[in-house]
């Protein structure tokens, strides 16, 4: 199965090269990028959800379920960003370079999620970091350059920690292959040297995920980047390079059940602090894009908290919330780009009554905001509910109450934002806004539909993810 997934890496990489020969034809570059990603999205969707797999509860693909759902998320967000960008980016911005970077980023992320050992994962994660760095400063302005510099210097320690952890594993365990490490972890108590290696790996990937206190680079990178780039980074790139790897580590080493319980406790504590800090900081923001960045940090906190707990139910919640965060944050960042292009600002105090002039942008934003807040029956409700139930089941009631409380805080804050931006009294910048063209609305409508459908058909999602988690953690 992993060999067959290589196509999802090689095809976008080939398309990225082809686009460089289409510098004088932006429309053809649009077509190559969108068709490549859409074809991959259709293919991975059928591979997972074909009638035979659904009929037999996904038993035939459960061994690679985590990788498959991540490839689906990667292609979904990348296609939506690509389609949106074909109408958003003017010809003067060298669109072919943007598409090449986007497709190369897709290839690197697919490499991360189909890797079979930590060293290969690290190589692809570093390739993704280089692509992300180039994309952050794509617009070639002061804010983008500042965000890129902070991204480079503040995530560099993460790379050092990861490489150190891999080196220790090689000397102590003699391998960094996932299956071999899992066999070692299952054979008995984890050695002190292996625990140190795992701790280094966790710190490195937490830095790349933007978890508090390693989050400062993320805010300026998201806000300073070109708007479609923010959607790409906030929707999927930082999730793959950080949160995905943390979940993978937990699934391999079963930290909660092993002698590495201290690492598990540290992950839970950092996850809880991140939920609190991100939610409170988001409330204080005036800029819609900056608010989304802090909110994204808070949502990632739920993933790390559940990963730290490490039970199969908690890991299921973490994986599903990672996918959900990709959909609702992708929607919100794309809509913030639409608002900025139409109204000329993302300052929430200068925006109001957008529902009349931008109804599709308004209602897709509301769906995404409510999903992020955990309102039933949307997908975000189920992933957060699973995480809370997993915490309660294992006796971590304090963390469960904290998660519930900040779900309410997020809901109240987002309700105020919705009223202020979309239904408030008319503002000068809001009055001049106009709805985006249809093909720029299609990506956010698609993501909104997935948010709704993933919530409605959660029993099928649960069946798929539970098989994938239990097969990979045994």
List the helices and strands and how they pair.
Elements: H1 7-19, H2 26-49, H3 51-55, H4 65-88, H5 95-114, H6 118-136, H7 142-172, H8 178-187, H9 192-209, H10 216-224, H11 227-253, H12 261-283, H13 288-309, H14 312-343, H15 354-357, H16 359-373, H17 379-393, H18 397-422, H19 428-431, H20 438-456, H21 458-473
Unreliable segments of 5+ consecutive residues: none
N-to-C series of helices and strands: HHHHHHHHHHHHHHHHHHHHH
- The percentage of residues in β strands lies in under 5%
Number of domain modules: 1
Largest sheet: none
Number of strands: 0
- What value does the Rg take, in angstroms? 21 Å
Helix content: over 70%
Average the pLDDT over all residues and give the rounded result.
85
Structural class assignment: mainly alpha
List the total number of helices. 21
Rough outline:
globular
Distance between the termini: 19 Å
Give structural attributes.
474 residues; mainly alpha; 79% helix; globular
Give a description of the structure.
Helix content is 79%, strand content 0%. By secondary structure, it is mainly alpha-helical. It has one domain (4-473). It is globular and about 65 Å long. 58% of the residues are buried.
